[in-house]
Amino acid sequence: MGKTYQDDRVNDTKTRDTVVKMMSERGVELSEIAEITFDLQKKYIKELTFETCLEHVERVVMKREVQNAILTGLELDIFAERGDMDEPLKSMLLNDYGLYGIDEVLALAIVNVYGSIGFTNFGYVDKLKPGVIKKLDDEGKKEGVCHTFLDDIVGAIAAAAASSIAHRYG
Ligand code: MG
Known about the structure:
By secondary structure, the protein is an all-alpha fold. The protein is built from nine helices and no strands. The chain has a single domain, classed as YutG-like (Orthogonal Bundle), CATH 1.10.3760.10.
């Protein structure tokens, strides 16, 4: 017998718990992502609260595409840190080589779910590096630390949640 919608929902919830734990172990809490979302949207929606932003961030990490992007990107960062990777990819990831570009492409799979507003928000976050993204970026410059995928994933989740809010209030 094939899988039902209910089976998929249960699996998505399990995977959500896994990716939230994984991000926490890599130094990011959903509340820190929600802070970026709040900053992105507060100037457009006067009645917006931090709690609403957190709800939308939680909604974003329930999406299968988002979970898969997180699993894939964070695993690559972790393998690079362990040195469990061949050259030239290992050095590209450890040094966050500017022309690598696949970290941004993977993050686009997250914002893609929310249409063109998602892309605009992601571009903005990527340029400004607000809040926890700046922290991740700085830590990632340390020897043996790789946040090449993580910073873009965090930015993309914040941008996706901002877009989700914009669609709701728009
Ligand atoms: Mg990056």
